[in-house]
Here is the input.
Amino acid sequence: MTTRRAALGLLAGGVAHVTQTSPLWAEARHSYDLRPVPILSGVWMIKGATEYFSRDNGGAIVNCAILQGKSGLILIDSGSSRRYGEALNLALRKLDLRGVSTVINTHHHPDHYFGNQVFADKPILALGGTIAAARTEGDGFSDNMYRLLGDWMRGTEPVPPSIEIGTGDIVVDGRRLAALPLGGHTASDLALIDAETGLLITGDLVFLDRAPTTPHADLARWQEALTTLAAVQAPAVLPGHGPLDRAGIAIRKTSAYLTWLNDRLVAAAGMGLDMIEIMETPLPDEFASMGAQPQEFHRSVSHLYPEIERMILPRAN
Amino acid sequence: MFTRSSALAVAIGLMAGSVSGAPQVQLDDPFSSGMWDYHQEALLGDPAKIQFDDRVRVIAPDTAEDAFNVPLLVDATALSDVEEIVISVDYGPIPKILSFFPGEAEPKLALRFKIDQATAIRASVRTRTDGWHVGGTLIDAAGGGCSAPAQAYASDDWEEKLGEMHGRLWSSSGRARVIVDHPMDTGLADGIPVFIIRDLTFSTDDGHEVARIALSEPVNEDPAFTLYFDPETMPSLLHVRGRDNNGNEIEGILTDEEVN
Here is the structure.
């Protein structure tokens, strides 16, 4: 005779079977596979996918840097969601049982600070401009991130950085850093040099093998910032997106792309092209092979062309 | 018997004017958006001859990066005798974006518009003898483009720039591009009434009209258009004249000069 208990057992067995082979009835819980990779003495990185946000990558597209501090780990950029922050927290406790002592955000884009929520009881440092921008734009970013990433974002609420970071030579949790207040990718971009290893952490002022993004860009200012960063002559550069650069190419490549992008848009304005016509022209091989192309180029046309066009077109009245 | 539901049906019928949701030509919407039948009646006047036609190309990005400035290129040059192109969205508080009367220009127009949600977007092309031909595409969007105040109000000199025009002709490639400074307020933002350019006409030096655009609220702030001409017959100079719904006159001249 089939008892209720046996029937439940059957049901449970059936469900377990379904989950293992093909989850027809529900999506598995999304989880991030974050692995800190040691890159220098007392320095690790989490490598992001060189892609755009998607429901496949869960928004894990950013590089995080982790530095050994005196009372725990210093985390530079915290990822795209609450769940990302939680995964980061777990993974980092394997490096130092005390976990994260301090968070620094390089700028206010959501993939760089939406994990802050998990570290809200720790000091979270950023430039003043970044704190202000995160406060005004956080909710808008959040709406868009939920739209792009769906369930990966569950429970995420933007927590802006809380403490304005000093600039020049500073000490954060016992670790000596040089903090460079720059801009161009956004109005306020922080680059950091780790005194002990010489590592230059650039945030999104530098990209490698992934197209730079421009929603808040000022291209001329960005190029100035890149000149400043190149002058550091760091032995290793950790870009905001893309692999660690020990060959000294990332800054130059970022600059070359931005130069090309500006020239392309200025030329297009001089020819009277509309945005769609520019988007339809193919990219040079050198830039077509970057991650997230041609989507990022298309986005950049939307961000930058209206203003460039106004400067190029003559007055008609 | 007169029931409550039939009373409701009558009321809805009255509210929507003559729109019944059942146009005289029933088309098979390639996007199955659920709204096309309604727009076919309300926007196009329930034409007797209408078809979806891939020769009407509507090109836009898959996703609207900036909900306030979605670029769009409509190209009906594969059709002949085009008299009017109606550009509209299926979903949005104000479906109609504009009507373009190409006249002596090519039936092709580049524009930008404000998007309020993910939607199908259509270009309905009226020809002189062969009825309407409708093309479209889909655009995904985070939305909100129609119900936010114009960005112009973030600066205090927008009134001085009102009606300021940039643009020129490229006679070798048959292009005319024009950008007019105007807030293009939809009336959907709290406390800000509708404030839009109603029409822009393009005419030759002797006053002969070559093309006209009738704008509605969803055209972007600081409208930007490219018109296309046969380089052989393109006028060497175009007057652009227009008027907004507050009676402000807009006037400018497009020439081949790079700087003026």
About this structure: Confidence is low (pLDDT under 50) at residues 1-21 of chain A.
